[in-house]
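Hi R.,

Here's the chain you asked about this morning:
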Amino acid sequence: MASATAVIEPLPIDRVYTGSGARNRLAEELERLEVRRALLLTGRTLSRGSLVHSVRGAADGRIIATFSEVTAHNPTSGVVAAAEVYRAAGADGIVAFGGGSVIDCAKAIAFYLQLRPPIVAMGTTLSGAEFACSFGQTDDETRVKGGWRDRTLTPKAIFLDPGLTAETPDWLWSATGMRAIDHAAETILATNAHPYLDALAEAALVIISRKLVASLVGAEEPRMDCLNAAWMAHTGSFHIDWGLSHRMGRQLGPRYNIPHGHTSAILLPAVIELERPLKPEAEGCIAEAIGARPGGAGAALRRLARELGMPTSLREAGISDKDEVRQVFADMEGAHEVIDLAW
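And here is the predicted structure, written out as tokens:
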């Protein structure tokens, strides 16, 4: 029987610079993109470290303004403030130096100003946001997170430099590593899975499950391996319909102030266990990739999360009212079963 027609649409990323010292080619890339007046976006912690000076130096005078108040879950107020700095500075491009929220903020600025400035993403975590054309943004009052995507928001150039992750806190590095595992696992579990994307997702699971703990000691080789794996895990982001772990985590995170990596640590094992009877081959693929027995992928991921110091249940994450959580997802099919398994 012939397979169903599928369309894989690669995102318009011009270049990915990888390896130690890749940041030193930033000025060259800004020149290629004809960026003369870049806004540097970053977070408060990174803005107080030494690496931000390295990024500014690598830009060779092309950074003319900085916004360093990007915070977790990308609240609307922060996007508005950053957009005003961009406009006031007369910037013509953005250098996003940080994790997923920083890179999402860069896309949001472009979206709301109805401009398409070149975005250069210099990631410091394993979120994979640099390899997506989508962004999430949280309403300051309701704490509801919305999402938008547009191919023209894709970063034009990406730098994967393990040296730029040196100031990333261990808990954040671990959490985003679990998020990368979630990207890969839900790629394999997706209803519109594809062999090409499955192969990259499987490779990502093999690498991250074996290298994430080792990468915490700061050695650049396992960190580079994990950065490459996060790239592989996110390749299907524009094509794949990710499942309940992503859809539920998007709302649980901002509502209860839980990092998305922790929502993945809690929800993904439950989702895998819920879907195992219907998708035994996909579960077996995930299990084999992470070194677990068939049927044991969920339990193995919980063990990894505990080893990394992450919560593995909704209660451990500080949620006390199960009925309240069920109400949040009253209209989402399968969500109540996941909540029961993750409680």
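One quick note: The first strand starts at residue 15 and ends at 18.

Cheers,
M.
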